[in-house]
Amino acid sequence: MYKEAEYTKGWFGLALFSDVHLGATDIQEQRLKDDLKRSCDEGRRILFNGDMVEAILPTDRKRYTPSRAMSNRDDVLNEATYYAVDFLTPYVDYIDLIGTGNHDDAPIKYNGYDIVGAVVTLLNTKRSKSLGNIHRAGYWGYARYSVGNMLPSGLKHKSAFTIYHHHGAGGASPVTKGMIDFNRIVYSHDADLYWLAHKHVGTQDPHIIRDRLTQQNRYEVRRSQAVFTPGYKNATNFSPKDGGYNYDYSDHFYSMQACGYAVVNLYQDYSTKLMKKDFEVISR
Ligand SMILES: [Fe+2]
Q1: Which end of the chain, N or C, is surrounded by fewer C-beta atoms within 10 Å?
Q2: What is the CATH number of domain 2-283?
Q3: Where exactly are the structural domains of the chain?
Q4: How far is the CA of 207 from the centre of ligand 1 (A)?
Q5: What is the DSSP letter of 274?
Q6: Which mean pLDDT values do the consecutive 10-residue runs of the chain (284 residues) have?
Q7: SS3 content of the chain, % helix, strand, coil (to 5)
Q8: Could you tell me the distance, in angstroms and rounded to a whole number, from the CA of residue 254 to the centre of ligand 1?
Q9: What pTM was computed for the model?
Q10: Spatial separation of the C-alpha atoms in residues 122 and 129, rounded to whole Å
């Protein structure tokens, strides 16, 4: 994704969400709504990094149990699609990117149906035309914002901010909390911010320091950052709906999960009008 954006009073903000698992019976939905509303109120652009929907279908022998059903409907893919569209519609003019996670990929693989593609297409019909479309991203990719001041002659004093986003893969990392994944992606990709999801941890590495010689033979030190966004699954095993026993296959039993999102604050330098090198990434 590439987008041009404007500073507001010397500042430009992003809100990074992932693993919202819409339609799951064990997510903190009110907290998610509050966090999305706060992001909009603060004027941030919103990005999602996969697992937008839970989409564990009755045909999934490994993961499905009746306590995971949204309702008694048979058309579960239609139900999940329209639930996600209705849920995200209040924020539609603030969302720039929706990526794909393993939960979104599974119905494509086993049912030939792309929920993220359908949801993005439907959301784009509800969006202000002047904004352009929400970008439907894949499992990983680059997102770049070119931020500046909008003058009558066009966008001036532009600076680029580049994000490498990957939904993540593999089992939970209850001990290292994803630091090994940071080192894997930092080795192979070049960005200002590395953004991972999937593991429901909230780890940050704010000091990825590299030096180099520029084309002009000048010595330069650059700082990148890396962040995991945890998502909105409950931290603990959920209790049965109506007594009895509900199966939980995950490893919540010994490792509590994090909950929430992250924000990025980019600042404009007052004298050079360019973006300040140091940016903020804050887990909330
Ligand atoms: Fe995931």
Answers
A1: C
A2: 3.60.21.10
A3: 2-283
A4: 26
A5: S
A6: 95 98 93 98 98 92 87 94 98 98 95 97 96 96 97 93 96 86 94 96 95 95 96 76 70 75 97 96 98
A7: 25, 30, 45
A8: 19
A9: 0.94
A10: 13
